[in-house]
Specification:
The chain is mostly helical and 352 residues long. The chain has a domain at 36-241 and 313-350. Helices cover 61% and strands 6% of the residues. The protein has 16 helices and six strands. It has helices at residues 24-62, 80-93, 101-116, 120-125, 127-142, 150-173, 177-185, 187-190, 192-201, 205-220, 224-229, 231-240, 259-263, 286-290, 310-329, 338-350; strands at residues 7-9, 17-19, 245-249, 275-276, 297-301, 304-306. The protein has a four-stranded antiparallel beta sheet, with no helix packed on it. The chain has a two-stranded antiparallel sheet with strand order 1-2. Helix 3 (101-116) packs across helix 12 (231-240) and helix 3 packs antiparallel against helix 15 (310-329). The radius of gyration is 23 Å and the shape is globular. The termini are far apart. It binds iron/sulfur cluster (3 copies). One iron/sulfur cluster binds next to helix 14.
Length: 352
């Protein structure tokens, strides 16, 4: 029997006819999804590079080596440990960190995304994730990617949760409020952004070795840092576990071509799952874009089918809303003037 316009023959089992629903809009978005994701990722990466350059110019001004450039608050996004300390103080006292408010805002936005939009922060926004994805693309072209055996993959994936547990123990569990207040008022905390810059400008031998090792491993092993070591991603994954969005697979429509699993940057075996709630899932939707069977992989929110574009819209929209809220409510700019920061930097950062 010949398939009709709304049916097609299963590629793996020609005797089987599969029914699909033509949906022009969904198809259009699905086709362009990888390019759209890359564009969003590159936009955030470019913004991050611009922030890094502006902060470098500000840093040079504090050393009297360049004309004044305003300090970009978004640089505080690179201080997640400080943000975790600030979050604990905020929860216990209601005091929002005034020295690094953008850092806490960005952290809260990422947590909120984790709760509501899977690991969308990792899949669409985080610049480190973008670099990791770009490395993965190059490795695929160079054919240098290794597939780790399951017995090694699983314990390695557990490493990031161990690192997260260590931070949770040291900060959430053990650090008393007085110690938190002392830490946040300390010169070390106030100059944390400058220290982060120095880490890149004047790396120690150990830091250089670790960085090169991670880069080399990322060329050989897909998304090495994100999948195995990043505690930030581990936290977002745990939050995402109970989130409203999930990808579901209709086994009746699935031709078991495995393209979804091959393309998945988190190496999830999508082809064998019915509902995908893995804490490793980035919400990147790449699996849905490569699936050759219409409606086989679908996005659901609270168990109802929703269009694919809803997830990136929620991710970018929520993130942008936090930024707007912080700008309008005074939770973005530090309360330390540029001159005060210059004095602190000169006293605690520039003197040997
Ligand atoms: S795992 Fe960490 S580094 Fe990777 S994308 Fe997520 S937050 Fe960024
Ligand atoms: S399962 Fe799909 S959405 Fe999740 S990380 Fe893999 S490719 Fe991306
Ligand atoms: S769900 Fe995966 S295995 Fe099934 S048809 Fe789609 S891409 Fe192929």
């Amino acid at each position: 029997m010949q398939p009709t316009a709304f049916e097609k023959t299963c590629v793996n089992n020609p005797g089987r006819i599969m029914i699909f629903t033509p949906n022009g809009k969904a198809n259009f978005f699905r086709q362009h999804l990888p390019r759209l994701r890359l564009a969003v990722q590159l936009a955030f990466l470019s913004f991050t590079l611009w922030v890094g350059w502006q902060f470098y110019l500000f840093y040079q001004w504090t050393r009297d080596l360049a004309p004044y450039t305003p300090r970009p608050p978004a640089v505080e996004g690179f201080l997640p440990i400080g943000a975790l300390v600030a979050l604990k103080r905020f929860v216990l006292t209601g005091d929002f960190d005034q020295a690094h408010p953008a850092g806490l805002t960005i952290f809260l936005a990422a947590l909120c995304l984790g709760l509501l939009a899977r690991k969308g922060f990792c899949g669409w926004i985080c610049p480190v994730g973008t670099v990791s994805n770009l490395a993965e693309r190059s490795s695929k072209k160079l054919k240098t990617l290794l597939t780790l055996p399951g017995w090694l993959n699983l314990p390695l994936m557990g490493l990031k949760y161990l690192i997260l547990a260590l931070f949770a123990y040291l900060i959430i569990w053990s650090m008393p409020l007085t110690a938190i207040k002392d830490f946040m008022a300390s010169p070390y905390s106030l100059t944390a952004d400058g220290r982060m810059l120095l880490f890149f400008l004047e790396p120690s031998g150990l830091a250089l070795t670790i960085t090169f090792a991670i880069i080399a491993l990322s060329i050989l092993i897909r998304n090495f840092w994100c999948r195995f070591l990043c505690p930030y991603g581990a936290l977002l994954g745990l939050l995402a576990y109970a989130g409203p969005f999930a990808i579901t697979r209709n086994a009746d429509l699935c031709s078991q071509c495995h393209q979804c699993s091959t393309t998945c940057p988190a190496e999830i075996k999508v082809h064998s799952k019915d509902t995908l709630r893995s804490p490793e899932c980035l919400g990147c939707l790449e699996c849905t874009a490569v699936c050759p069977e219409q409606d086989c992989l679908q996005l659901k929110a609270c168990n109802k089918n929703v269009p694919l574009w809803l997830l990136p819209l929620v991710i970018v929209g929520l993130y942008g809303s936090f930024y707007l809220w912080a700008r309008l409510s005074g939770h973005w700019q530090t309360n330390l003037s540029a001159e005060t920061l210059k004095i602190i930097y000169q006293k605690f950062l520039h003197t040997p």
